[in-house]
Amino acid sequence: MAKAKKSVKAVKSSKAVKSANGPKHLVIVESPAKAKTINKFLGKDFYVVASMGHVRDLPKSRMAVDIEHDFTPEYIIIRRALKTVKQLKKDAEGKETIYVAPDPDREGEAISWHLAHIFSEEGHGTKILRVEFNEITKEAVLKAFDHPRAIDMDLVNAQQARRILDRVVGYQLSPLLWKNVGRGLSAGRVQSVALRFVVDREREIRKFVPQEYWTLDAKLSATEGSEQSKIFLSRLTQIDKVKPELKGQAEIDGIKQELQQLPFQVSNIEKTEKRRKPQAPYSTSKLQQEAYSRLGFSAANTMRIAQRLYEGVELGEAGSVGLITYMRTDSVNVATSAQEEAVRYIQEKFGKEYLPEKPPVYKSRKGAQEAHEAIRPTSAFRIPDSIKDFLESDELKLYELIWRKFLSSQMAPAVDEHTAISILAGEKYGFRTTGKRNLFLGFTAAFGEIKVENENSKEAEEEAPEVLELPELTIGQKLALLELLGEQHFTKPPARFNDASLIKLLEEKGIGRPSTYAPTISTILGRMYAERKGGALIPTELGETVLDILVAHFPTILDVEFTALMEEELDQIEEGKREWVKVLKDFYAPFSEYLARAQTEMKSVKQAPIPTDYKCDTCGKQLFIKFGRFGKFMACAGFPECKFTRSIPTGFFCPEPGCGGELVKRRAKGRRAFYGCSNYPKCTHVVNELPKKEDAADASSEAP
Hints:
- By secondary structure, the protein is α+β, with helices and mostly antiparallel strands.
- The protein folds into five domains: 7-149, Rossmann fold (3-Layer(aba) Sandwich), CATH 3.40.50; 172-188 and 196-206 and 506-601, Topoisomerase I, domain 2, CATH 1.10.460; 212-277 and 414-490, Distorted Sandwich (Topoisomerase I, domain 3), CATH 2.70.20; 284-409, Topoisomerase I, domain 4; 610-702, no CATH class.
- It has 19 helices and 29 strands.
- It has a six-stranded antiparallel beta barrel with strand order 11-12-17-16-13-19. Strands 3-2-8-9 form a four-stranded parallel beta sheet, with helices on both faces. A four-stranded antiparallel beta sheet has the order 22-23-24-25, with no helix packed on it.
């Protein structure tokens, strides 16, 4: 069935007055940086301005969605946008055409539609056309203006459906949390499922019971030949041709005694050549993952920096230049022109042998927006070193990451030689050593490989140790046993999620989309449902409480498969395959039933205040531990007459000489938790982490 294209009709007004001297056309983008970059590509007939993002949205003070009448939204001009809208209307006067040019995605299409609505309300009647481009270069921008189009209502409705769905869920669930847990809390389709991943992983870690196991390595050397001095390790991998499970020291000692009496000799040598293909250029999720793994950037920080690189950076005499393609994408497609440019650069820089036999084609994940491109540099010849003086440190790091990834994706495979040496000790014990050496760098010449931690550490440790340089041995060659090395290990629990691993799981499960990964993590942290510790995401007591309540009363909404299905249906709206109001109705029918039951059955988990031995600094009354939005705190028994509060002491004294205060947990708006002195502002001592317990004991003994 062919896609039925719906659009806002572009109407040319007979009242439009052509300016004799000024610009004939108005171009509206989201940001001043983007406007500045685009402005230099267009002639004097174009005037480029910024809307500063969305100009219309649902009001914050109420749900503003008429559920009974097909989920009709009540949009208003955002308060911060009132002045901007007034100026845009003034800028549009006398223009032949208004070009709306926000980002090439659902949000950008929605901004375009809202702008068109504002102008149509004013009776401008000026022709309104949509232009979109994946990169802010002269060629791409001019091409877009040569092929404008009408606003795509399928894209708009996909955004509307998502926005209204999240509003309905959030504004009906959140009051329940306020009533039964605490004020200021929120719930959401995607954020709550993401929180569930974090909480479930933490509980899995708590239940984990370490299991002891051992490995045994033999330190060996050749007894003859030119490689006699070469020493290498080989791991015990078989006992009577069966993989051993070594449980304890006594078993290891018994095997050692036997091995000391046995001859060691090479039983087999396998050498194979393996070609390693490069990975695809970055999608949004992969960029966020590798920016975290390689650079330590949070997902939110990665997107902020990428936005600046996309919109344009001042490069001296060249002016403002967009350095990368659009950074919210789940596609790994690359434009033919970009591939051809990469080929020219690779041939000049590395040589023809570093080019693949044919241009690589990468497969995007299911449901990806194939019309978009991967994240890549706008020019392969714009090497990082040539622009480093114009970029901030983090901008340069991220640009170089993107640039090298793209180049490597267009290069030939790397070629390695893998060697596996099997060794017999007598007839009973089998050892194995593996080695690898590179025969051809291929794509690794442009971009090294990321070392990925194996969460199943037991499997990783039991594998044969890999040695980069092995001695040249022959089958049947005798080996000298120098030492036997038994090592105790304990299985480890699965790793806590960090930005990279959580985004990877969200993508694998089909939860959220490129534009939502970073905001989802930020929301979880901002609501104090989780904290960062050493990069890991750890749920708070509050986060676990909220999740348990939601799972108990809204099992479907918190179901991973159901949430993924909803994402697919929202994508189908964009493709013109589903009607957006029908999707919302199908969701709301069971949701409203859950909601009705929860309103009567959900029980409060608010805890009664707990008395302490501390006294109020203001009135001297007893302090009680209370439970608020940000966790536990101490408050005066005289509330509301006395509003004194303080953080709960940690049991650690302030290390500043003569202070005598205690370290308490604090949190500043928009940042992670930290620990500061209870005597603030008199004492300004702060630390990000508490001292170790043994250090605390020393400090407490010295405290006055």
